[in-house]
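This section describes the prediction task in plain terms. A model, or a person checking by hand, is given the sequence of a single protein chain and must write out its three-dimensional structure as a string of tokens. No templates, partner chains or ligands are provided. The sample shown here is typical of the held-out split.
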Amino acid sequence: MPAPIEDYALLSDCRTSALVSRDGSIDWLCLPRFDSASIFGALLGDPTHGCWILRPRDASATAQRHYLSDTFILVTRWESADGVAEVHEFLPMSEDRTDVVRRVVGITGNVAFATELRMHFDYARALPWVRQIGTAEEPALSAIAGPDAVVVRGVKLAASDHRHRGEFSVDAGEQRDLVLTWHASHEEDPAPLDVEDAIARTRSWWQGWASPIAHGGPYRDAVVRSLLVLRALTHRDTGGIVAAPTTSLPEQFGGSRNWDYRYVWLRDAALTLESLIAHGFLEEVHHWRRWLLRAVAGEPAEVQIMYGIGGERDLAERELTSLPGYNGASPVRVGNGAVEQYQGDVLGEVMVALEAARISGLDETEFSWPLQRALIERVAAGMARQDNGIWEIRGSLQWFTHSRVMMWAALDRGVRAVREHGFAGDADRWEKMRDRLRAEIDERGVHPDGYFRQHYDTDEVDASLLTLPQVGFCTADDPRMLRTVEQMEKTLLRDGLLMRYRTASGVDGLDGGEHPFLACSFWLVEQYAASGRRGDARVLMDRLVGLVNDIGLLSEEYDVAGARQVGNMPQAFSHLTLVRAADALGGHSGRAADRT
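The expected answer:
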């Protein structure tokens, strides 16, 4: 069985990532990109689906771990009966190669280690051709399957039933480097990695990136780690920002709500950018804006709600039978059917983020404003369409209030760009459409009892309505918002945390239920803070920050009864809303929503 979700740590080189358990097993690794097929897939099955175990032979050894400050270099300190040793593991920052480094360092005594390598390429559908290619002094193993190959160096490994095992020991002051290197199978084996240089370069890169972060207060550590997670999920070459580095970690244990999040949702990426903008990271915005231009290309009318990391459009959803799922939660999915959906809110989030970047000093380029103008026209063309909404409802299309507000926001940002920044555009027409949309929302999006409702034909509320003040549609203390919050507290709070919506209403067209969605509770913190309930905001924020795992990571949802994290992890949405909530409690907002 895989470890509890909260027991996993993230390693990232901003091109791909690995998840390593507290017990020292890398159970998820896709090479060379986040969305590549897995070589280690035990996270969604068992060790036979691929893993790399490294830990002391002493079964009673205990571990404590942390990230080397402001990096993704994971340090696990093992204490055994015979001594103490540390494992330092990371994905090196490199221009031209992909490696996984696991350095074992002796601290006291003599600690014997065992390692077991089970390679099962292509989502456990391809066993590799494996051969020894090293020497007795410099052992190395080569494994090839289809287009992919890896070389493993640093310890002599012996084969047994598709497993490769090795043992070694370290004395105090001694170290042993185990390195896995990916390469295309038609290419020559890469040269051995200079591990000392890789450590220094990787540490410098992460710490250099994090050094400008200037967030004070009680949540600083959580904010810094969250911003680092957002950077770790941003592809270093393309600028695409993935929602999470995993697929099919279940929203309900044993259930079928299992989705592939290793792609770039325009909404999630835009929200990520807003949190980065609020802390001065404009280069990532510039990089993503260029990604967006390439992805949308010459036909903004055909814009999708999501793309691949490089801007790929074909993300057809399919089910894998080669992986049984996390603790049996099936199916395991690759691709995401939401790519075919119309979600009316998405371009509003994009326009809000790009306006925030403009206000923060990011200059428009020759192509960036024409692209935004075309996206506004795409919003205008979709005004008469119902949609699937922010939560990617797979039930009937609706007039979702949140989506209509985000369309309002897109038009509003277009008008402001023309009127206040001097860009070319049909501001008069956009303004008329914006004002008609506001009137429609005020009439149909507000329940007779005075609260904003999930969609125009329901009595239900939805946590996404908490974002209305964030984009300036209304103020946080607007009586309608206050009544909306009251209604959420009555119907959506579960054990003190907020659900997205009531799945029992049947609106999503899916079987089963889910757990509280962490981003929604962080939105509630922000709403409390902005509407004068700062005491309630701090109580809820303290509780939420207390849910991060031992190294500061959050998944998508939280099972309060089981005291465990749920869903894909780490989740960009959870971390970006943590940053926003902490900023709100500090009296700072990065959403440029100061006007209504």
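For orientation: The radius of gyration is 24 Å.
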